[in-house]
Design goal:
By secondary structure, the chain is an alpha/beta fold. The chain has two domains: 121 residues, no CATH class; 180 residues, P-loop containing nucleotide triphosphate hydrolases (Rossmann fold), CATH 3.40.50. It contains 15 helices and five strands.
C-alpha cells in the first residue's frame, strides 16, 4: 500500500472501511472443522485482530470536533485564520486523530460535492516533516503528495508558487503536517522552514493542522517565531489515560470494554478483561497504542495455543514497547 503522505496513499486510506469481523462459528461447526479448514479459520481471526481497530477516545473526539469547527470558520475568513496543533507523547493517538479529522472532512466534502467534480478536488493534503527539515523540503513534500513534477535544481520559490497554485485549483481546505517536532527552531534551517510554513499558511485558504511529539518541550513556541505560532494555533494535547478519578477510570474501562467486544475467541467470557482493567492500566501506562498491542497479541496467542481465551499468562507473555515497560516498572 502506498504511504499515507501521497495522494494515492491518502485515497487508499479514504477507501478503507472497518475490517469485517469474521463470524465465530457455533460450537459443533467449530469442532467439525478439518485441519485445513481450522487453519484458514484461525488465520482469518488472527488477521482481524492484527488490523488497527480504531477506538474513539475522548482525545480523538475532541480533536476531530475542534478541527471541523476550525475548518468551517476558516472557510469564511480571508485573514485571521486559526490552525490546530496536536501534541503529546508517542503512542497516544496523534496521527490517528489528525488522519481521522482529515477523513471526516473529506467525507463531508464528498457528500456535498456533485459526483462529476469530485475527481478534480483534493480536500486534504497530508505530509510528514522530514528530519532536519529545510524550507525546500516542505514544498517538495507537498509537491510529491500532489504528484507535481519538479526539477532537482528548481528554486524553492518556483516549486512553492506551483504548489500554491495547484492547491487553490483543487480547493484544498485542510493541510496536515505530521512529525512537526522535526522542525527545530534553534537552527537556521528550522527557522527558515518555520517562515516557509508561515508563508504557506498566509497564502493558502486552508486550515493547517500540525502534529508532533511534545512540541512545547521541543521548543516549537520559543522565540519570536514560536510566539507568532502560538498566536495563530490552538493546541490540544493527547496523553496516556489517567486512572485517579472515577471519571478517568470510567473512560479507561470504556476503552477496555470496546476492545474486548471485538475479540473473536471461543472460550473468552465477556467482562474478563474489565476485571483486570487496573492491571491493564499499570501494564500499559494508560497508553492506547500499548493497550491495543497487549489485548490483540494476547488474543492471537490464545488462538495459537488452543485455549481460546485471554488469561493472565497470555497478558504477561506479551512484550510491549519500551515506554510501556518503563511505565510499569
Amino acid at each position: 500500500m502506498p504511504p499515507l503522505a501521497s495522494l494515492d496513499g491518502w485515497r487508499a486510506f479514504m477507501s478503507q472501511n472497518l475490517p469485517e469481523p469474521p463470524a465465530v462459528l457455533p460450537e459443533e461447526a467449530w469442532r467439525g472443522l478439518s485441519r485445513v479448514e481450522r487453519i484458514v479459520y484461525d488465520q482469518a481471526r488472527t488477521a482481524y485482530h492484527d488490523e488497527l481497530l480504531l477506538v474513539s477516545t475522548p482525545a480523538i473526539r475532541k480533536i476531530t470536533t475542534t478541527g471541523m469547527k476550525l475548518i468551517a470558520r476558516n472557510a469564511r475568513r480571508q485573514t485571521g485564520r486559526k490552525g490546530l496543533i496536536v501534541s503529546g507523547p508517542s503512542g497516544t493517538g496523534k496521527t490517528t486523530s489528525v488522519s481521522q479529522l482529515g477523513k471526516r472532512h473529506q467525507l463531508k466534502v464528498e457528500r456535498s460535492t456533485p459526483v462529476d467534480v469530485t475527481g478534480e478536488r483534493v480536500p486534504v493534503v497530508y505530509i510528514v516533516t522530514p528530519p532536519a527539515v529545510k524550507p525546500r523540503d516542505l514544498v517538495v513534500e507537498l509537491a510529491a503528495f500532489l504528484g507535481l513534477p519538479y526539477a532537482y535544481r528548481e528554486s524553492p520559490q518556483v516549486i512553492t508558487h506551483n504548489v500554491i497554485s495547484v492547491l487553490h485549483k483543487v480547493r484544498c481546505r485542510l493541510i496536515v503536517v505530521d512529525e512537526i517536532h522535526n522542525l527545530d527552531l534553534t537552527t537556521r534551517n528550522g527557522q527558515d522552514a518555520s517562515d516557509q510554513l508561515k508563508y504557506l499558511f498566509e497564502q493558502i485558504q486552508a486550515t493547517f493542522v500540525y502534529a508532533g511529539v511534545n512540541v512545547t518541550e521541543n521548543g516549537l513556541f520559543s522565540g519570536l517565531r514560536g510566539r507568532q505560532l502560538a498566536g495563530r494555533f490552538i493546541t490540544l494535547n493527547t496523553g496516556a489515560f489517567d486512572h485517579d478519578t472515577a471519571q478517568q477510570r470510567e473512560d479507561w474501562e470504556r476503552v477496555v470494554v470496546t476492545m474486548e467486544g471485538t475479540l473473536r475467541l471461543h472460550r473468552h467470557i465477556p467482562g474478563t478483561l474489565l476485571k483486570h482493567e487496573s492491571y491493564l492500566h499499570r501494564r500499559t501506562g494508560g497508553m492506547i497504542g500499548s493497550l491495543d498491542q497487549l489485548i490483540y497479541e494476547a488474543a492471537n496467542d490464545a488462538i495459537a495455543d488452543g485455549t481460546e481465551k485471554i488469561t493472565q499468562r497470555h497478558l504477561k507473555a506479551v512484550v510491549l514497547d519500551t515506554a510501556a515497560e518503563e511505565a510499569q516498572a
